[in-house]
Amino acid sequence: MYNKLFVKILDSSIWLEPTTTRICWITLLAAMDEHGYAHFSAIQNLAERARVTIEEAQAAVDCFLAPDPNSGDPDNEGRRVERVPGGFMILNSVKHRETLNRVVALEQNRLRVKRFRERQSGAVATEKPVKTRKAAPTIEEVKLAAAKIGLSEHEAEKFHAFYESNGWKVGKNPMRSMVGSLAGWKLRNQTRKAPESNQIQETIPIKAL
């Protein structure tokens, strides 16, 4: 069984006792069950578990059974144990257990708060940023950009009408660059006109000399 040892024991009157007495006290605390009962049917059993002599264990038990005017616990006149059949009853074990339960509850609450904050922090970190849709270019913006690359106003209007109708998409993807798309529009427009110009020249009759 696990029993928690509080640091305040270092400031208790028991810590003013001889080393062997302190060891016996810690041995009793470690051995007690949830009701405060420490099973040591004979002083020799306590001595062997505490690794002290029988005389030292007896002196420690006498100390625990006697009133202690310097004890910080006024209950039982400062007595620490009571001899019962088969062992010892630690008299302040109930207070010890209540203090332990409060400490455990506070620690569990601290861990719950920590885990909650970690989950909240992780949720914020993994949340995808909301993409804001870029406003579609106006006809004035298209005409201005077209003029800079030498594209006629008529073609700029055609460009704007075409892409306005399909939601400003190039294929299935949103248009990334209006200027780049305008340049491509101009290039395709020039490519379409070139064959027409060659065809007209081929149909002009050549006068015989």
Record field, number of beta strands: 5
Task: List the helices and strands in order.
Answer: HEHHEEHHHEEH
Q: How far do the termini sit from each other? A: 124 Å
Q: Based on the structure given, which CATH architecture of the largest domain is correct?
A: Orthogonal Bundle
Assembly type of the chains comes to: single chain
Q: What does the main sheet amount to?
A: 3 strands, antiparallel
Structural domains: how many: 2
- Sheet-strand content, in percent, reads 5-15%
What gyration radius follows from the Cα positions, in whole Å? 46 Å
- Uncertain runs are none
Question: On the 0-100 scale, what is the average pLDDT?
Answer: 83
Query: Structural class of the helices, strands and pairings?
Result: mainly alpha
Helix content: 55-70%
The CATH topology name of the largest domain reads Arc Repressor Mutant, subunit A
**Which word captures the global form?**
rod-shaped
- Order of strands, widest sheet: 1-3-2
Number of contiguous helices: 7
CATH class of the largest domain, named Mainly Alpha
